[in-house]
Amino acid sequence: MVDSHYDLLSICYKCYLLNDYSLIEKYSKEIMSSGVKCIFANLYFMSEEEMKDELHPNYYNKDISILEMFRISKKILLSYLPNIDFVFSIEGCDYIKVNELEDLYNEGLRSILLVWNNENIYGSGVKTNKHLTSLGKEFLQEAIRLGIGIDLSHANEETFYDMIDVIKENIENGQNVICYASHSNSRKLWDIRRNLTDRQLECIRDVNGYVGAISNVHFVDALNCSFENKSKEYLKHIIHIASIIGKDKVMLSTDDMRFYSDYDKSYLNAPIYQYTSVKEDIERELLTFFNRTDTDNILYNNGYRIYSELLNKQMIRS
Predict the structure, then answer these.
(1) Residue 154, SS3?
(2) b/e per residue, 102-129, with b = 16+ CB within 10 A?
(3) Which of 57, 166, 180, 201 has the fewest CB atoms inside 10 Å of its own CB, making it the most exposed?
């Protein structure tokens, strides 16, 4: 299985600041026994106040560069999971200058989420209603030039459609743009701002993009359901997304935020599946609707295709 969004780099950096690696040790053991072979590993940024309160007082420190944070967290992660394939990602790019992107790319950055939920210098997330800024367009152009994947999750509709316009413009000019919403579900089925409308899904389809359906109860109508019903509600989102963008463009995401439960206890029970059995549990559910080939594509091949393109590696079929 490919997991298209997991904040593992943030976990590693928090462990580094605490000088306590028990959390990444725990999650590494789960990952190694899970059947997950490739992960989009994310380092995320919120407002300075939120990072200080919710992650660690020194999580974002102006005396250390984002490049150094990225290097530290990546080194820790690779030391614990040397046999996993990773797409390294940064979410909330307002602390990165446009001219710093190339150094991050050379260090291994292959995916960016321009915004988190708030407004920043580049655009706006789902808590606001502002558009992509001119600086945001410049940032996107540089990321596309370098071959960095463009992740559309977290953007509000105004910024989302502006980003789509930039992506279309680059495609029309002959650029190979790899884009996706790594962890979002269907707003038609569960009406929250972080999910995608059918129109947004159609836009993603039209730029040959992908969507990572997220197995988190906050993104499906499943907060008070039994496990069986939560799983079936999640399957409905996968089916609906596939009906619009195609079965060859659907990925899977856990966005396993249990590490965040020391701040917000609701995240402790957010995952629909236990990580140690996530691959076999989702596979079982997929096979109730999809055939074996489509199931394998959704579980692994679709997500690994992006990994292969971003890292210029030969595609290996599961």
Answers:
(1) coil
(2) eebbeeebbbbbbbbbbbbebbbbbeee
(3) 57
Domains of the chain and any CATH numbers: 2-310 (3.20.20.140)
With contact defined as beta carbons under 8 Å apart, do 241 and 202 qualify?
Answer: no
Contacts for 165-173: CB closer than 8 Å, 24+ residues apart: 166/132, 166/137, 166/140, 166/141, 167/140, 167/207, 167/209, 168/206, 168/207, 170/141, 170/144, 171/207, 171/208
d(CA 237, CA 63): 43
Q: How far, in Å, CA of 30 to CA of 7, rounded?
A: 15
* Partners of 38 in the β-ladder: 2, 85
pLDDT (tens digit, 9 = 90+) per residue, 112-167? 999 999 999 999 999 999 999 999 999 999 999 999 999 999 999 999 999 999 99
Long-range contacts of 277-284 (CB under 8 A, 24+ apart): 277/34, 278/1, 278/3, 278/34, 278/35, 278/36, 278/215, 278/254, 279/1, 279/34, 279/35, 279/36, 280/35, 281/231, 282/1, 282/215, 282/252, 283/1
pTM over 0.90: yes
**Structure tokens given for 19:** 């000088």
Which tokens is 119 given? 């407004």
